Amino acid sequence: MVVVLVLAVTVVAAVRSGLALPARLILVVEELLLVLIIMEVFATVLASLRGARFMLEPFLLDGVIAVVRHILSIVIRLAVVESPGEAWTRLVELGVDAFVVLALIGALALNRWSLRRTAED
Predict the structure, then answer these.
(1) Does pLDDT of 106 surpass 90?
(2) Confidence band for 86, pLDDT divided at 50, 70 and 90
(3) Are 39 and 3 in contact (CB under 8 A)?
(4) What is the pTM of this model?
(5) CB–CB of 55/77 below 8 Å?
(6) How far is CA 83 from CA 28, 79, 86, 91, 93, in A?
(7) pLDDT mean over 1-8
(8) 53: alpha, beta or left, given left = phi > 0 and alpha = psi -120 to 50?
(9) Per-residue pLDDT band at 82 (split at 50, 70, 90)
(10) Can you tell me the distance from the alpha carbon of 81 to that of 79, in angstroms, rounded to the nearest whole number?
């Protein structure tokens, strides 16, 4: 229910904004990713409160989603760059975010490998 409400508000805000269509679509996708992050964290914390085993994977996935969301916002800002210095800053930021995504995916793979190894023992 909350997701539908957030989606409706986001679509209305995107339609009313003066942004170009691609920027509007990216805005909607960013907001949906934010809702997904919040829902995942909420579900993980709720499961922990109910006595379930702490799981690292949902937090790693949330991290990947958050960085991808940030990458989308950088791409939007790159479309309206005002100076070469600002463009360079955005590109460096994009490179750092790409490294973070790779590191998080590596941590996710390592986590899954260790869980499989533990289950085999």
Answers:
(1) yes
(2) confident
(3) yes
(4) 0.71
(5) no
(6) 27, 12, 5, 13, 15
(7) 76
(8) beta
(9) confident
(10) 6
Angle at 69 between CA 45 and CA 82, to 5 degrees: 145
Distances (CA, A) of 45 to 6, 49, 66, 102, 120: 21, 6, 17, 25, 28
Tokens, residue 82? 């005002």
pLDDT value for 96: 95
- Burial class of residue 84, CB neighbours in 10 A (0-12, 13-18, 19+): exposed
C-alpha span between 21 and 25 (Å, rounded):
6
Among candidates 78, 68, 58, 56, which has minimal Cα distance to 100?
Answer: 68
Task: Tell me the per-residue pLDDT of 30-56, one tens digit each, with 9 for 90 and over.
Answer: 788 788 778 878 887 888 788 767 778
Structure-block tokens of residue 95: 């490179």
Residues 6+ apart with CB under 8 A from 89: none
